[in-house]
């Protein structure tokens, strides 16, 4: 844990975990302030978890969440009031420490610290406060401090962002490219289903971000606050500015844990888990191993969500383990789906239904999880009947695997790039923004009607790279995206139904059916998922090697 000292009584840092609290307590910290809203990152513990652990360690915990880049004067004033009310050492944290430092800087009066001293202390702690000081002095901040200008700025260093940057540089190494992302760790999120089933170790699904940034690209380790497409500018936290000639947005998706009442307070305990968070997937496997009998619930929220098959994958792999251990007859397995069907592409449903029957799993459609009480081991669902009338039903559980509702990230939803639902508004064929000609998007953040999967991003990245370069006159012809996505549905240990499809549910198999028929469970698909896809992800997709993903020019 990297702790930065701002004053004798205030330290700041990046995200704190429960494991860090004893070390903070040993340093004499008596109070925590969380300035990070829940749900910003896939490895982020909820504030409720931090608060519970802090109180156990003898500290108080306070929640003052601020959206990145949106630190207002009232936010700073409230931070100042909170600091003044607390006696003893205080530690504030957010994603990187920048928001907490900005709140501190803006809450100081000139009588306490001069602007020069604020800049000095911020710099010593590793945070550039020069633009914040310009704001304190009342200088025009509309343009902010311009850090640099690039041919291409890529927002987001997930699967889509790194892949598209690598594809661009593989085609034209003379481009100046920046990748903007504050995260230190990059995750292979498709592997978390296997972590939750005891097949993969968590460590195999994570690598340092620094090791994956493509050669020739600059990594701007900061969070994006806003977009100013009229000025070809990306506004970063701390009022800093990056200018671009062309922009690619690959900012991912937000997991909205807070949308389910009581969920943040009980995640990771009381039998409540989720494979959608890095640190919880191992808890899933622990619960599966320990459950001898009772009721196991698996939930799926309304669409859109990333990897729509993942909620039922957790069910199949858990039930298969219980079947092999001879426990399944003692466990009531129930699937609660906010939607009306098991899977959106009908051709794959017959194979899936055979496993639903094998595991004697109950299917509860049009049931949306709205509330959970971990201490009482009870979940409440909003059930919608055929006429659209809602009612609430309660169900007790011994274990529940929860998939949270999902939205576009906050800074995307409020931006001029978003459609009415908050997603980046692109042409579904070219992935170019419908309003701003020098902006493209890919991955989970955009509004094309395709499945939000890593396989989709693998196909989209070369298409965006080609089309961006074609717009620059450095490539011939425009490529079109057909909506391809893939969902390897792990129906049992050793077999997978490999769903591959595009726009409108059209089947788009990547191999001939005599070799691999995705409509049937096969060991070949399992071998692909377990052995081949991880190295393809790390060593090909993220490196700009477009195996089975070369874009076809001019085809829809």
UniProtKB/TrEMBL annotation:
The yes or no answer to whether the keyword Flavoprotein is present is yes
Q: Which cofactor does it need?
A: FAD
Q: Which UniProt keywords apply?
A: FAD, Flavoprotein, Oxidoreductase, Quinone, Transit peptide
Q: Which residues form the Beta-lactamase hydrolase-like protein phosphatase-like domain?
A: 2-108
In its UniProt record, which GO terms are filed under biological process?
Answer: sulfide oxidation, using sulfide:quinone oxidoreductase
Coiled-coil blocks: none
Checking Pfam families in the record gives:
BLH_phosphatase (PF04273), Pyr_redox_2 (PF07992)
Would the keyword Nucleus be found if you checked this record's keyword annotation? no
Gene Ontology MF: a single term: hydrolase activity
Name the InterPro entries on file: BLH_phosphatase-like, FAD/NAD-bd_sf, FAD/NAD-binding_dom, Prot-tyrosine_phosphatase-like, Sulphide_quinone_reductase
Q: What is this protein called?
A: TIGR01244 family phosphatase
Taxonomic classification: Bacteria, Pseudomonadati, Pseudomonadota, Gammaproteobacteria, Cellvibrionales
